[in-house]
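Z., the sequence and structure:
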Amino acid sequence: MAIAPRSKNFVPLRPKCIATGSRLTGSESDAQDIYQDAFLKAYKNLGSFRFECSFYTWIYRIVTNLCFDHLRKKGVRKEDAPVLTDSEGNEYSLIDQAPDTRATPIRSAT
């Protein structure tokens, strides 16, 4: 029988979650806030963790979704999104690096 993850399992994931949040939001400060919100949300919902994926995958999706929510609340549009330049001088949008794969509601044809 699998045991639900405990809060001590959250600590090693902090650097990865902060890095993901920083990449998506363009701000380490925002990433730290999102990290705290994500782990509070995960801790409150440990009972709903279904063990269909790894705990890290679950946390990663929570962080990613909270980043998208944060960017929406700030009114950041794709055109205004933080843009970085890679080592070859090509520009790319941070939002394009993590597609939003949340399910969209099914609309009935009427």
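Helices lie at 14-25, 28-44, 55-74. The longest helix spans residues 55-74.

Let me know what you think.
H.
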